[in-house]
Amino acid sequence: MITVSFNIKDIGALQYIILRMRIGFFADMYLPHISGITNHIRLNKRFFEQQGHEVFLITFGSTQYDDDEPNVVRNLAVPVGSTGWSYGPAFNKETRDLLPTLDIVHAHHPFQTGSYLLNHMKKIDAPLVFTNHTRHDLYADTYARAIPYTLRHKWNSRYLKHFTSQCDLVIAPSAGIVDWLAEYAQCHTAQVIPNGIDLSAFQVDGSEGKNRVHLGISKEDTLFCYVGRVSHEKNISYLLNEFLSLHRLYAQAKLMIVGDGTEMSFARDFIKRHRLEDAFILTGPKDYELIPEYVALADAFITGSVSEVHPLVVIEALAAGLPAIVVDSPGISDTVEHGKSGLLANCLEPGKLAYEAERLIKDKVLRAKLSVGARERSLLYCINNTAGQLLDAYEKLLEAS
Description:
By secondary structure, the chain is α/β, with parallel strands linked by helices. It folds into two domains: about 10-195 and about 380-400, Glycogen Phosphorylase B (Rossmann fold, 3-Layer(aba) Sandwich), CATH 3.40.50.2000; about 200-380, Glycogen Phosphorylase B (Rossmann fold, 3-Layer(aba) Sandwich), CATH 3.40.50.2000. It has 16 helices and 15 strands. It has helices spanning about 10-20, 35-50, 95-100, 110-120, 135-145, 150-165, 175-185, 200, 235-250, 265-275, 290-295, 310-320, 330-335, 350-360, 365-380, 385-400; strands spanning about 20-25, 55-60, 70-75, 80, 85, 105, 130, 170, 190, 220-225, 255-260, 280-285, 300, 325, 340-345. The strands form three sheets. The chain has a seven-stranded parallel β-sheet with strand order 3-2-1-6-7-8-9, sandwiched between helices. α5 crosses α6 (about 150-165), α9 (about 235-250) packs across α14 and α12 crosses α15. The longest helix has 18 residues, at about 385-400. It is globular.
């Protein structure tokens, strides 16, 4: 609970104690699963704790995982394939006992976690906050294809409408997702608070840490990198085919894929079938703390994904000075400015992404200009700024309650 102590010497100390919050982050999955949402939660949790707030992370999965941070509550759940998601039938006693002590309840997934929270919120005197991190329509097309198209989207849309209507604050990380929520879930009250990162971690010199030569990359090569899940919803097939077209024109084009996922066997098959072993570096999954030194080696970031809400991996690439070669879509186009911090293919048609990547190879002046613009653009997403906005929103909710 928010506590007030009168054993203080000045009004500044009183204000600090009054505003000290107990915050609960609720998520369907967390570490060891690696994702943009995991990193977002972890960064914000750490920032809030540094400001003196008490933050709890409540999630599902194995209770045997050894967490390296305080206040992580794990509800026993059964993993579903290799998706990283686990099914848990309900909150455990520790979670149920914790809920009434929280000042802010913040859901990061609407379905499992969100539905369980709705069952408890009527008994809890705390605002319910929800951040929509995902294009749930696109994820349903990937993970719920067994359900007829019309039925799955009708249910998805209705549930999101119901869930968001029960929240005291709905957060969208980008303006494009505000529009998507209004159209898909008839939620017209979402507020934009961007995702943020620790910029300093990515503002490193590529000569530090790993060396391009050790990866088989020469000075003449143009190294593109993709960081993230290697999965269907990330349009991995499209990315690989676009890179194949690019490499046939420019042998010096190389692609480093940092990550793993359900489509990795397809990616390896694709590389072998087209004899592209010399053009690809597959690093596998890496701990988040190691990602900056891999990103720093590249000349540009590239992805064919259109399922992003506000992609941290793109922001991280911008912070490292990498122009982003991306597809114009909600979330992406809110983050990358065409011709300033990257290049946007105007659609997912064959050749579109490869064309923008080709421009970067041919025009080194453009590449240098975009690199400067990328670093400037990333400043908008400093964790101190974005997490500060979130704390301000929490405080306004508490003042109004």
